């Protein structure tokens, strides 16, 4: 039985070719995702340390 050959990533999908650009680019989506994760973590930490939910912390009823 022969071993399957490893799949080589396409050059267009490589992180080395990611460059800032206009529109729905891989680079933009990756950066937006990272900022969203940081924001979500900050929200969870805020709620944990203040013992209030986000809307109460903002002063909304």
Structural summary, described in words:
It is built from 2 helices and no strands. It is elongated. The protein has 61 residues and is mainly alpha-helical. The chain has a domain at 25-61. It has helices spanning 26-50, 54-58. 0% of the residues are buried. It is 49% helix and 0% strand.
What's this model, at a glance?
With 61 residues, the protein is mainly α.
Please outline the helices and strands.
Blueprint: H1 26-50, H2 54-58
Number of beta strands:
0
What's the gyration radius in Å? 20 Å
Low-pLDDT runs of 5+ residues are: none
Query: What's the end-to-end separation, in Å?
Result: 67 Å
Share of helix among residues? 40-55%
Helical element count? 2
What class, by secondary structure content?
mainly alpha
The ordered string of helix (H) and strand (E) elements is HH
Hey, roughly how much beta strand do the residues contain? Answer: under 5%
Mean pLDDT: 82
Shape: elongated
Sheet of most strands: none
Core attributes:
single chain; 61 residues; mainly alpha; 2 helices; 49% helix; elongated
